[in-house]
Amino acid sequence: MRNLILFIWKYHFTFLFIGLEVLALTLLSTNNTYQRTRMHRFSLAISGSVFNFQDGFARYVNLDYENEVLRQQNALLENELFERSKGKTAKRTSGDFEVLPAVVISSSYHQSNNYIIINAGSEDGIVPEMGVQGTSGIVGVVTHVSDHYAAVMPIIHSQTRVSCRLAKNDYFGLLKWDGTDHEVATLEDIPNHVEIDSGDAIVTRGSSGIFPRGLAVGHAIETEKNPSTGFQSVSVRLATNFQKLNTAFVIQNQLKPELDSLQTVIESDEQ
Amino acid sequence: MNSNLLSYLVSLVLLLALQILVLNNIQISGFLNPFLYIYLIIVLPVSFPRIGVLFMGFGLGLALDVFHQTLGMHAVATTFLAYCRPFILQYMAPRDGYEFSRVPGIRDMGYLWFGTYAAIMVFLHHFMLFFIEAFRLSGFWFTLGKVIGSTLLTFLLVLVVQLLFSGRASNKSGYD
Questions:
Q1: pLDDT above 90 (res A154)
Q2: Which residues pair with A102 in a beta bridge?
Q3: Residue from the list A13, A25, A27 with its beta carbon closest to the beta carbon of B50
Q4: Which of A12, A72, A140, A150 has a CB 3.0–4.6 Å from the CB of A154, allowing a cystine?
C-alpha cells in the first residue's frame, strides 16, 4: 500500500495527464458523433478479432473430432452410392463394394518404392489386396495387415500395376509408375490409333475386383506413340496428391473371393 | 500586481478572442487552420508548476472546444502539449540550467532557441489535434500534410506575436 502511494506520487504528473486525457476523450466521444462512431467501430474491431481468435481456437481444438465425423459421413455416402449403382448397373460393376474410413499415419512420396501406413487393420476387417481410395482419386492396394494397421502399396511404387481405362471410350491399359515424379504415372498398352487429348479422364477398369469400375485415377497430359509396338504410352497426372495424403477409404469387395476363384479355375484350365 | 502576470492575462484575453472570433473562421483552402492560442502555453514561465501547466492546457482546450463545438478535441491536444512541455524544456535546457524567472521567449532565450522550441511545441500540438480530429490512421499522409501546413502557419503567427509582445531581443543566445 505504501509502495503504491509512493509509486503514484512519483508519477503523479503522468497520472494526472492520463486522467485529464481520459476525461477529454470521454467528452470527445460522448459529444461528437463522428469520433463516437469511430470509437464504436474501433472497439467492435477489437472485440471482433478477439472473438474470432477464440472461435478459431475452439474450432482448431475440435478439428480432429470434426474430421472423424466427416470421414464417417463420407464413407456412409460412398456406401450408399455403391448401393444405388448396384441395382442399376449390376452387370457392369465388378463386385459388391463397401467402404471403410481410415487415416494415413505415415507415407512417403520421394522414393522409387513408396509405402503408406493407415490406421485400420485386420480387426477392422481389412485384408491384403483391398483397394484404397483417397478423397480425390485412387491411392493404392493393401499389401500387409497387422491388427490395427495396414500397409498400402500406392500407385507411386515401381511394382504397382493398376488396370485403367479411358473414361471416354473404354480403351484400357496398365498404369505403371517410373519412379520419378510422384504426380505423374504412365498408362501403357493403349493402341496407337486411339486419339487421346490432354485432359482426358483416366478411371479404374474394375477388372480385378480391387477397385470398383470408374474410380478417378487422373487425366492424360501427353501421349507418346510407339510405331514399333503399335501401342502408345500416356502420361497421366494423378488425381491423388501424395504429398498431402490424409484421409483414405479402404474398399472392401464382398465378391472378390468369388472372382478370384473363377480366375484360378481359368488359369488352371489353360495349363 | 505583478506586471508579468498582468501582461499574461491581457494576452490571454486577446489571444483567446483572436482565436475564437477570427482564426477559427479561417480555413485556407479548407486545409490549413492556425491555432495561435497555444502561444499561451508556450510562453508560460519556465518555473511555472507543471501541474498548473497541465490544468491550464486542459482548461484552454476546453474553452476553445466550447466555442468550436468540438467538446474534448482541443482539450486532448492541449493537455498533451502541456504534458510534453517540461520534457522539452528539460531537453533544451542551457548547460547551467534556467534562471528562476526565465520566460521561454526571444528576449530571454534568443531567436534560435525560441524558434526551435516553438516549432517543436506547435508541431506536437497540431499532430495530436489533427489526428484526434481525423480519428483514424487511414489517410495518414493527408492528415500529416495538414499537420505540417498548419504548423508552419501557426509557427509564423507565434513568431509575430512574440516579436510584438516581447520587445527587443537580447543579444545573448540562451545557450551560452
A1: yes
A2: A248
A3: A13
A4: A140
